[in-house]
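In this supplementary section we document a worked example of the pipeline. Step one takes a protein sequence of length 200 as its only input; no multiple sequence alignment statistics are reported here. Step two produces a three-dimensional model, which step three serialises into structure tokens for compact storage. The input and output of this example are shown verbatim.
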Amino acid sequence: MFQSILFYWIAFVVVVAALGVISARNPIHSVMFLVLAFVSSAVLWMLLEAEFLAIVLVLVYVGAVMVLFLFVVMMLDINVQRMREGLTRYAPLGIGVAVVVILEIAHVVWFKAQGFSLGVAPQPAPADYSNTEALGAVLYTEYVYPLELAAVLLLVAIIAAIALTMRQRPGLKKQNIAKQVAVRAEDRVRLVKMKTEKEE
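The serialised model returned by step three reads:
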């Protein structure tokens, strides 16, 4: 009973945080709501006894990806007012997706109310079971190539984020390594000879 109450409460927090991500006026507030959604989702993973996935969600997404999002939001010159001007043209698509999601949720709730079984509840794992070991065995045997591909995609995403911050914009000073190497002492230092002053 307690687990059911905790699940519905955490699920409610996830939904509210997701609504905050898309409705917040400030991009920083959107990122903070996304952090709340990730942490709440980690609690749901804990309820499913998937401790490794929960800690990865907190460490990787909250600890690394969200910091990267903050850097991108704060370092890039994002014109929020200009972005909001074109919001109305995407409104029909957003409303359509929202209607589909609401219909799916209502469909599941209706089936649950009719007494249909929506799935088998997971059985509690034995005390000596390690989901970290089982997940590692699957990742590094059956899914090793998709795992490596995901790592390459993350590397490309990091390089793209750095390239976006180093784009041409007014007031940006960049180094010219070729000019620095080719500089001569005569171009930078001027020796001036002055007559010594005589003491009276």
